């Protein structure tokens, strides 16, 4: 998967969101668009080695405590974030920065979509053998989801300062284009059942809930109510994207 992503070189567009013209501002509800959306230009690219720390932080944040629950305390002096960073830095792992699509504004990462073929979904056996069985059992329903034949969206994350600008929806558009490029016709993902903003985004983009996996609450888990497994067939209903020019 990493080789295929690198072979694509770059996603085929830059994006200048609606609201940058006088006509757009006048057409918006109330005639106003927030200042931080005017003239905002975001480009989309695949992760590079210098993005490892940003990718690791966003993956951990998107997990909502899942990685802290699974990996925390396994190795003295090594945090769950440290372990995720190690995986992100290794091009052979699913969490590799090369599997990440980044939203970039003026050289600053504004969001991440990390995805890979569903056939590769799951924990490597060596990791399963290290994590205590009681932890694995609590989330077994998530880890054993059937997502084969799809592109699996492992993490969709936007830093708090960049939220509310449509970056997540634009990243979903990138995921849809990559899904087609890799000759899949479906995207799957997991989302915490009580993560209302994310759930609203996915439902409005064409995703449907396939099943809800119950997860017993724990102090390290930031969410309640388990996780939804969701699926969407192409094309995704992301909308709101300007015409694009192919990047070199």
Detailed description of the structure:
By secondary structure, the chain is of the alpha+beta class. The chain contains ten helices and eight strands. It has helices at 2-8, 22-27, 52-63, 66-71, 80-89, 125-128, 133-138, 140-143, 167-181, 196-204; strands at residues 14-15, 42-46, 100-105, 108-117, 151-157, 186-192, 208-213, 227-233. It has an eight-stranded mixed beta sheet with strand order 1-2-3-4-5-6-8-7, with helices on both faces. Helix 9 (167-181) links the parallel strand 5 and strand 6. The chain starts with a helix and ends in a 15-residue tail after the last strand. The relative contact order is 0.17.
What does the overall shape look like? globular
Largest sheet: 8 strands, mixed
| Rg | 18 Å
Biggest sheet strand line-up: 1-2-3-4-5-6-8-7
Secondary structure category = alpha+beta
Query: Averaging pLDDT over every residue, what do you get?
Result: 84
Beta-strand content estimate: 15-25%
Query: Which parts are unreliable, with pLDDT below 50 for 5 consecutive residues or more?
Result: 1-39, 240-248
Percent of residues in helices comes to 25-40%
Q: What is the count of DSSP helices, taking H or I runs of 4+ residues?
A: 10
In N-to-C order, the SSE pattern is HEHEHHHEEHHHEHEHEE
Tally the beta strands.
8
Query: How many angstroms separate the termini?
Result: 21 Å
């Amino acid at each position: 998967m990493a080789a295929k992503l690198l072979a694509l070189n770059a996603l085929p567009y830059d994006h200048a969101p609606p609201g940058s013209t006088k006509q757009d501002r006048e057409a918006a509800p109330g005639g106003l668009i927030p200042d931080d959306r005017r003239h905002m230009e975001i480009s989309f690219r695949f992760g590079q080695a210098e993005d490892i720390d940003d990718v690791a932080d966003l993956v951990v944040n998107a997990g909502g405590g899942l990685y802290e629950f699974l990996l925390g305390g396994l190795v003295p002096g090594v945090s769950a974030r440290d372990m995720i960073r190690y995986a992100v830095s290794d091009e052979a792992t699913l969490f590799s920065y090369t599997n990440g699509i980044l939203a970039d504004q003026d050289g600053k990462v504004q969001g991440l979509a990390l995805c890979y073929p569903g056939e590769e979904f799951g924990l490597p056996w060596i990791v399963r053998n290290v994590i205590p069985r009681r932890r694995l059992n609590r989330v077994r329903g998530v880890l054993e989801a059937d997502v084969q034949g799809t592109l699996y969206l492992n993490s969709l994350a936007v830093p708090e300062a960049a939220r509310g600008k449509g970056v997540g929806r634009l990243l979903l558009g990138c995921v849809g284009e990559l899904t087609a490029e890799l000759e899949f016709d479906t995207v799957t993902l997991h989302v915490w059942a009580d993560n209302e903003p994310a759930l609203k985004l996915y439902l409005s983009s064409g995703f449907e809930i396939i099943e809800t996996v119950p997860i017993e609450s724990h102090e390290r888990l930031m969410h309640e109510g388990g996780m939804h497994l969701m699926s969407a067939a192409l094309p995704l209903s992301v909308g709101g994207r300007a015409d694009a020019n192919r990047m070199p």
